Amino acid sequence: xxxxxxxxxxxxxxxxxxxxxxxxxxxxxxxxxxxxxxxxxxxxxxxxxxxxxxxxxxxxxxxxxxxxxxxxxxxxxxxxxxxxxxxxxxxxxxxxxxxxxxxxxxxxxxxxxxxxxxxxxxxxxxxxxxxxxxxxxxxxxxxxxxxxxxxxxxxxxxxxxxxxxxxxxxxxxxxxxxxxxxxxxxxxxxxxxxxxxxxxxxxxxxxxxxxx
Length: 212
Known about the structure:
Elements: E1 7-12, H1 16-21, E2 28-32, E3 38-45, H2 48-54, E4 60-66, E5 71-77, E6 92-96, E7 102-109, E8 116-121, E9 126-131, E10 143-148, E11 155-162, H3 166-171, E12 176-180, H4 187-204
Antiparallel strand pairs: 1-2, 1-12, 2-3, 3-4, 4-5, 5-6, 6-7, 7-8, 8-9, 9-10, 10-11, 11-12
């Protein structure tokens, strides 16, 4: 189904317990097309210990299923570092599609100023770059992570964190993202871009006041 899409909307569902008590719960997402129609549903799997103690750095497995309940994509994130002081053990996500078959990887690149990632294919060959802004707080506005060619000169798309309003951002960690890529991009790389979106969400927008 991803073959026909050039825009993917990812909407994190509001968790009532998280909104009322501030307790971190497993994330659930709806993945939609540009018309707002749900095409996939995603659920994060980990335990309470990871969510409470490791929060933005937590390991996870996100299972993505179609509307018939068939798992079509699996995103796996191990526990790794997230600091410019530790350039040797940075974030990496493996994306499988179908589950058990590697589609590609998202690898964080060390940079003292900008969030940078490399999208790799199943053979760990570099395909695309993702470069974010210096500040990701996004004061009442969207935050764009640009998808670029390997030379980092040509922009071919973006991953955007949409500002969703004061109430959502203060009381919950829910987020709305948009992925824009060329429609003819390799469908496996489109699946990897969804994994990149989940990683960006956890790394930069997990705190409840982000987006203000």
